[in-house]
Amino acid sequence: MTNDQPLVSLVIPIFQEAAHLRVFLASVREALDKCHCVYELVLVDDGSADDTWRVITEEANASSSIRALRLSRNFGKEQALCAGLEHARGDAVILIDADGQHPASLLPEMVRMWQASGADIVEAVKRNRGHESFSNKFGALLFYLLLHKLSGFNFKGSSDFKLMNRKAVNAWLKMGERNVFFRGMTVWMGFTTVQIPFEVVPRSTGQSTWSNLKRLKLALTGITAFSSVPLQLVTFAGFFFLIFSVLLGAETLYLKLAGRAVSGFATVILLELLIGSLLMISLGIIGEYLARIYEEVKGRPRYLVTDSITPATDLVPKE
């Protein structure tokens, strides 16, 4: 490694990708060889139950550029990204999915743009969401629109496929929260960012492990981590119903005193249902924020490493 050659770390979170991992890593190496830089691959096995770790071990034995971590269980992609970022030592760190939907052919252009522009972050932005169901596309659109309105940050087309320089990585690592929403955290930092559009390609093999429940959980994490507006909406709703109750009470009292009071059983039932529903939703919103606070104050680590692979010819870590 010479002084004019930057070290580029490629962080790859992996879960149940043994079937095509060798082919994917070969395509990554081929792309990085065109970058004219020294590189390392930081592979994070997020508790895979298949042969993923065996494949990683064999690949690491054949290549000195691979460093690997095996998490004790499936902690989730966001935590796997944390593990990779904390162990990456490059002047620049690129995050890429192992399912092949992030094209490795884009890596040389990302490195070139980073070196030419001097930007802190080079973000690959989706032109479209690829071959997804209508419900998934609509759900993603609704989530990003809602998060944009609540937080003020624009996440349209954003992805985890991006390059961050050492300054941006070090700043990101200072954020010790355990409810991690990687895309939101990088946008929140506000560093200089340039974008590259890309087409999402179909998965190499297998099916996505992202269920609707996991997507909903990530959406709730993103919203609660970057906006307190839902809590404020509960307050506004309370004031609205207070004013409505005062007006309705005044009207009821007037009709009573004027001797024109009528039975309003249906009205009472509807109001009970409406207010009861609002109270339950409000408690749910408050409970979601309390759950985030509870998870943070426990202070548990984001992840646990059960095994690791470090090349014998390891490079000196970057400061």
Describe this structure in a few short sentences.
49% of the residues lie in helices and 15% in strands. It has helices at 21-32, 52-62, 77-87, 107-117, 134-151, 166-173, 182-189, 212-226, 229-257, 265-298; strands at 7-14, 38-45, 66-71, 92-95, 121-126, 162-165, 193-198, 305-309.
Describe this entry's structure for a reader.
With 319 residues, this protein is an alpha/beta fold. The chain has 2 domains: 213 residues, Spore Coat Polysaccharide Biosynthesis Protein SpsA, Chain A, CATH 3.90.550; 70 residues. Helices cover 49% and strands 15% of the residues. It has 10 helices and 8 strands. It has an 8-stranded mixed β-sheet, with helices on both faces. β2, α2 and β3 form a beta-alpha-beta unit. α5 packs parallel to α8 and α9 runs antiparallel to α10. The longest helix is centred in the last third of the chain and has 34 residues. It is elongated.
Primary descriptors:
alpha/beta, 319 residues, 8-stranded mixed sheet, 2 domains
> How many strands, what sense, and barrel or not for the largest sheet?
8 strands, mixed
Number of discrete domains: 2
Shape: elongated
Strand order in the sheet with the most strands:
7-5-6-4-1-2-3-8
Structural class: alpha/beta
Mean pLDDT: 81
- Name the helicity range: 40-55%
The portion of residues forming beta strands comes to: 5-15%
Distance between the termini: 16 Å
User: What's the total count of β strands?
Assistant: 8
Low-confidence stretches: 315-319
The appropriate CATH architecture of the largest domain is Alpha-Beta Complex
By CATH, the topology of the largest domain is Spore Coat Polysaccharide Biosynthesis Protein SpsA, Chain A
The CATH superfamily of the largest domain turns out to be: Spore Coat Polysaccharide Biosynthesis Protein SpsA, Chain A
The first-level CATH class of the largest domain is given as Alpha Beta
String of helices and strands: EHEHEHEHEHEHHEHHHE
Q: Give me the Rg, rounded.
A: 25 Å
Please tally the helical runs, counting DSSP H or I stretches of 4 or more residues: 10
